[in-house]
Amino acid sequence: MDNNMKFKDGFLWGAATSGPQCEGTFNKKHKNVFDYWYEVEPEAFFDKVGPEVTSNFYNSYEEDLAMLKSIGLNSFRTSIQWTRLIKDFETGEADEDGIEFYNNVINEIIKNGLTPIITLHHFDLPVELYDKYGGWESKHVVDLFVKFANTAFRLFSDRVKLWTTFNEPIVVVEGQYLYQFHYPKVVDGKKAIQALYNINLASAKTIKVFKENNYGKDGAKIGTILNLTPSYPRDINNPDDVKAAKIADAFFNESFLMPAIKGEFPKLLVDLLKEDDVLWESTEEELKIIKENNIEYLGVNYYFPRRIKAKEEKVDESKPWMPDKYFDNYEMPGRRMNPYRGWEIYPKAIYDIAINIRDNYDNIPWYISENGMGVEGEDRYINSEGIIEDDYRIEFIKEHLEYLHKGIEEGSNCFGYHSWTGIDCWSWCNAYKNRYGFIALDLKTQKKTIKKSGQWIKEFIK
Ligand code: GAL
After folding, report:
1. In this structure, which residue's CA is closest to atom 2 in ligand 1?
2. What cellular component GO annotations does this protein have (predicted)?
3. pLDDT over 90 (residue 253)
4. CA distances from 373 to 57, 157, 334, 343, 421 (A)
5. Which of 264, 350, 418, 461 could in theory staple to 14 by disulfide, Cβ–Cβ 3.0 to 4.6 A?
6. pTM listed for this prediction
7. Does the residue 125 lie in any domain?
């Protein structure tokens, strides 16, 4: 490891979390799809731990932010919950308590010398909007989201200079409509494709409102956050594997990346969807909005690569349509795994992403908005001073930074690195199974203790 890696002045070093994963539901007037799912099916969540308390940020944000500052970070991402900020979804009118809370949080972030980065949607669709309109299947919901975003910009863009419309929108499509890990756990490829389109439209319409109202006048910028999982074919000399990997990339990466940056959908994807008769419903006017309203910067969440091989078994055409008809996942022998999360560890992909953005996406300004390692049972690494010695996390981060640094040296326009996460937080259905933080959370007492990685990152940043 090259300990002398230099990153430019002003490089953002930080950590990310989201409203639903850290605040707790205290004093929240509406429920999102996870709040509701936990209410009706608590056993779907690890150890039946739900979203009510999480890491108690609603009550402890002052101490929490001071701790993040104390480990040397200069920036912090969280999200504003639609179900907390908004009183009336149809008008976008804000709730007084919601305004007060987010005002306090944003002021406190800034007071601690941290640059705030604020996400507007982190998997937290209001469940009422699913029940009434079908959630992201509906273009009315798209417009309601834009109203919420406009309210948030109006209230906070004097202080928030980096906004992001969505976090990992493809995960919403996968979780809600394909692979059943987000409520309502539907399996319906056609609806999935409409939701994919509608969320792209919501992001573009939000950018339009941001520009029209000149919220960027004091330097605020708007972007989006995508989880990029580069698809590597099993055998680069086998054209079928290569083609399958290209298609997987079009579905899982380019379906949001291209509209966000280039204003259009990948042709390969559109052609396949047309052929299969599952293409989304769109209008000329909407496509024009997508064309004209691109992001100003990109956040990339990177955890693991995708390995792909050509389909091995014939697809049963009587079954509902799924994108998986075009590829199989490939378990590469000898791949390095994080056994707790079941994710492959492959740091070089971060370099490949950097070069892809440089060469194929106009070298747009971008940053790593999430990267990290979830580990179960970290208590077994507690030393005599009560500190978790998470050397594996330090190694993981170092290795990824090395490849990121190489990408930057070769001209990729990356302005920051955020780890997931600062303080151990709640991870959807996995709840508190795997811990990711620089700071450990004792769930019973809510006591927070800096891990070895937290001490390390401080020195590294220096
Ligand atoms: C990401 C997601 C985060 C967090 C993380 C680790 O995909 O954006 O919300 O849950 O995974 O589980």
Report:
1. 168
2. cytosol
3. yes
4. 22, 32, 19, 9, 9
5. 418
6. 0.97
7. yes
* Residue 21 CA, closest ligand 1 atom number: 9
- Examine residue 87 and state whether it is found in any structural domain, yes or no: yes
Over the Cα atoms of the chain, what is R_g?
Answer: 21
* Residue 305 CA, ligand 1 centroid: distance in Å: 15
Position in ligand 1 atom list of the atom nearest CA 123:
9
Please give the residue range of the domain that contains residue 63. Answer: 12-461
Q: How many domains in the chain?
A: 1
Residue partners of 338: CB distance under 8 A and separation at least 6: 344, 345, 373, 374, 375
pLDDT tens track for 270-307:
999 999 999 999 999 999 999 999 999 999 999 999 99
- Is residue 3 a part of any domain in this protein? no
Residues marked as catalytic: 168, 370
Q: How far is the CA of 118 from the centre of ligand 1 (A)?
A: 15
| Minimum CA distance residue for ligand 1 atom 3 | 427
Residue pointed to by tokens 């490891």: 1
CA of 427 to the centre of ligand 1 (A): 6
Span from the CA of 379 to the centroid of ligand 1 (angstroms): 21
- Strand locations in 372-438, DSSP E? 375-376, 414-419, 434-435
**Residue 5 pLDDT:** 87
Ligand 1, CB cutoff 6 Å, lining residues: 18, 21, 167-168, 227, 301, 370, 374, 420, 427-428
Could you tell me whether strands 12-16 and 75-79 are parallel, antiparallel, or unpaired per DSSP bridges? parallel
Angstrom distance (rounded) from CA 304 to CA 228: 9
**SS3 for 320?**
coil
The CATH number linked to 352 is 3.20.20.80
